[in-house]
Amino acid sequence: MAQLGEVFIVDDDAAVRDALSLVLSLEGYHVRGFSDGAAFLSVARTHVPSCIVLDVHMPGRSGLDILKELEADRYPAPIFIISGQGDIPMAVDAIRHGALDFIEKPFDADTVLERVREAIEAHSRRGTAEPSDLLTAHFPGHDLLTPREREVLVQIASGASNKEAGRKLAISPRTIEVHRARIMEKLGAKNAADLVRIVLKDMRG
After folding, report:
1. Adjacent-strand bridge partners of 69
2. For the chain, what is the radius of gyration of the CA atoms?
3. Full pLDDT tens readout for the chain, 205 residues
4. Residue 158 near residue 200 (C-beta atoms within 8 A)
5. Which of 11, 84, 98, 132 could covalently link to 55 via disulfide, CB atoms 3.0 to 4.6 Å apart?
6. Beta strands 79-83 and 30-34: pairing type?
7. Which residues contact residue 26 at a Cβ distance below 8 angstroms, ignoring those fewer than 6 apart?
């Protein structure tokens, strides 16, 4: 079977690592497991996988700490955070620090497989797609946005709903909402229409 890419699983729970490794390996991915953040960081800084699945609660460095140290908002691979229902505020914080999306516990391994597959496909499409004017335009506040926030902004400006934008970028509608709020805050927009006006006004000169 041809290898589809490499996935890093970072979780101190061996049972979770084993279950996800089994499902992803059977699908054709090469999987590498890490039980702590330090071991993961030492590898991830020099070797970029196709995707990372990272638990938010671990002894020592939390998933959030790891995202910050890795500078995840500029890391060239999609990163999922595994989070329990009570960890949603932390998951939202993780997205602000560069995580692609979060996967809520309890989850089944097939769901994770599907999310990983979609994220890797979306990431590879992004690398080959024609760049949108909005991705390269220099409107006021452009430099404040992360690369992913710019991608979400393209979807908002094209009139996509949260659900449609999420489908296109392989992330959940809730995560699109988080990015939308963050973009509006950074650009000083009152609502989505105001946001589009701010961006397009400058582009039209």
Report:
1. none
2. 17
3. 446 799 999 999 999 999 999 999 999 999 999 999 999 999 999 999 999 999 988 888 888 999 999 999 889 899 999 887 667 788 888 888 889 998 888 888 888 999 999 989 888 776 544 445 555 566 777 788 888 888 888 888 777 888 999 988 888 888 999 998 889 898 888 877 777 777 766 544 4
4. no
5. 11
6. unpaired
7. none
Three-state secondary structure call for residue 34: strand
Predicted TM-score (pTM) of this structure: 0.75
Give 180's contacts (C-beta < 8 A, 6+ positions apart): 152, 156, 162, 192
Q: How far apart are CA 13 and CA 4, in angstroms?
A: 25
Angle, helices 147-157 vs 162-169, to 10°: value is 130
161's tokens = 């709903």
Whether the CB-CB separation of 7 and 54 falls below 8 Å is answered with: no
Number of Cβ atoms within 10 Å of the Cβ of 163: 11
User: With contact defined as beta carbons under 8 Å apart, do 118 and 111 qualify?
Assistant: no
Q: Residue 99 is encoded by which pair of tokens?
A: 């995580």
Residue with tokens 């890391």: 75
Tokens, residue 9: 């699983």
The side-by-side arrangement of strands in the sheet containing 6-10 is 30-34, 6-10, 51-55, 79-83, 101-104
C-alpha distances in Å from residue 166, one per residue of 84, 130, 160: 21, 19, 9
The Cα 116–Cα 201 span in angstroms is 37
